[in-house]
Design brief:
With 120 residues, the chain is mainly β. It is 0% helix and 53% strand. It has no helices and eleven strands. A hairpin with a 5-residue loop joins strand 5 and strand 6. The radius of gyration is 14 Å and the shape is globular.
Length: 120
């Protein structure tokens, strides 16, 4: 079993920055990929960014490309999401996720989520 704990959400003005962090813990697990999704009120959860754990290859949703940066610390089992030039439409609950199975695409573990609110 893997537990994920997000931190770093909050309220920021448009154009500002926030940094989210997610720490993974548990017994005897290996990480294949970690990433972030978000869900705005009344909308479906959507993909934001992901990172391959061993190679560090990243992938972003078009809506955040060039503004958000995902990174990982393999020694601490953490993944961060640096969010710059935030827009009101970035307002959502952000969820960290983790995949342990190599080659799998669907997230297997989820965090509880952290609220990000961007005011105009």
């Amino acid at each position: 079993q893997v537990q994920l704990q997000e931190s770093g959400g909050g309220l920021v003005q448009a154009g500002g920055s926030l940094r989210l962090s997610c720490a993974a813990s548990g017994r005897s697990f290996s990480t294949y990929r970690m990433g972030w999704f978000r869900q705005a009120a009344g909308k479906e959860r959507e993909f934001v960014a992901r990172i391959n754990w061993s190679l560090g290859i990243t992938y972003y949703a078009d809506s955040v490309k060039g503004r958000f940066t995902i990174s990982r610390d393999r020694t601490k089992n953490t993944v961060d999401l640096q969010m710059n030039s935030l827009k009101p439409e970035d307002t959502a609950v952000y969820y960290c996720n983790l995949i342990t199975t190599s080659g799998a695409t669907a997230p297997q573990y989820w965090g509880q989520g952290t609220q990000v609110t961007v005011s105009s």
